[in-house]
Design brief:
36% helix; Rossmann fold; disordered C terminus; alpha/beta; 301 residues; nine-stranded mixed β-sheet
Length: 301
């Protein structure tokens, strides 16, 4: 992967002028996005969940694939496969119970559903429109018999879910569109639903410079900010370095309960035998730097 410039501030006027000069065909789409942003912010009055629900409604009505940042079938499949390959190579097992926050139209979710035991996949999203698209993906892939749970939520408190329920929680391209108040809410509650030894993987827009946002849709954070926020809620976060080798613009972190993180060693996960309990306590991780399969196209989110 080419070296990434992680210090630029995409919200600065200088960056926007320079970008517009280099990409003049993108000026009109940006202006339409700017007008939509102003209109939705005016209507939702600071409620970010209501704001992003309206964004997803608008995007899904035009193109359900594009609503999750991958407008073509090829990109949609490429990014879904990338997420699936990475997670199954980094600790996800068929007998795990998985919660996917921001499951969208099951871009990666349909692969997880097929891989996991029946009833072990739970997907939540704030958008009813994208969950209708998820139901269609489920039917298109012939996965109804796997009995996944798809639930609309109004926040990230996860109040409808029981304690210690999930071995793996996954949120791809959720925190990249979330202010710190939403991320803080997720950290405050995700530890409750994690099973002993479980982990929470999420992606985010990384900056090593000034933290900033573009409109009310794209947020850029330093990893130290997210790690410190997780620590407030008794969680330990670390950057997944080998994710950076993949053709993807976002970065990834893994979160565990702080006491569980102390007992985890960076060795390959042991093979489970019939005599072992179904829930692994604690879960061990594979080596931090592994060779990762790259897809031919670079997805955007």
């Amino acid at each position: 992967m080419p070296t990434r410039n992680r210090t630029r501030n995409r919200s600065s006027l200088a960056h926007q002028v320079r970008y517009a000069t280099q990409h003049p065909t993108r000026i009109a789409p940006y202006l339409r996005r700017l007008a939509r942003d102003w209109n939705i912010r005016r209507r939702t009055r600071g409620d970010h969940v209501a704001y992003y629900r309206a964004v997803m409604k608008s995007d899904t009505s035009r193109n359900p694939r594009g609503a999750v940042g991958t407008p073509t079938e090829q990109r949609w499949n490429a990014l879904g496969k990338m997420q699936f390959d990475y997670l199954t190579g980094h600790g996800l097992s068929p007998d795990d119970r998985m919660l996917e926050i921001g499951c969208g139209n099951l871009r990666a979710g349909h692969r997880f559903i097929d891989y996991l035991e029946s009833g072990h996949y739970h997907g939540v999203d704030i958008s009813p429109d994208i969950l209708l698209a998820a139901q269609q993906t489920l039917a298109d892939q012939g996965l109804q018999h796997k009995l996944p749970y798809l639930t609309i939520v109004g926040d990230l408190r996860l109040t409808h879910l029981p304690d210690d329920a999930f071995d793996v929680v996954h949120a791809h391209s959720v925190f990249s569109h979330s202010p710190l108040t939403v991320i803080d809410e997720c950290f405050r509650h995700v530890g409750r639903v994690l099973a002993p030894g479980g982990f929470f993987d999420f992606t985010y827009n990384r900056t090593d410079g000034e933290e900033h946002q573009v409109l009310n849709e794209d947020f850029y954070y330093r990893p130290s900010t997210l790690a410190a926020l997780a620590e407030v809620h008794g969680l330990h976060a670390r950057v997944m370095d080998d994710w950076e080798e993949l053709p993807h613009k976002q970065s990834k972190m893994r979160v565990r309960a702080a006491n569980a993180a102390e007992s985890v060693t960076d060795t390959a996960a042991p093979t489970q035998t019939a005599e072992q309990p179904a829930r692994k306590k604690p879960r061990k991780e594979p080596p931090r730097r592994t060779s990762a399969r790259k897809t031919p196209e670079t997805p955007d989110t």
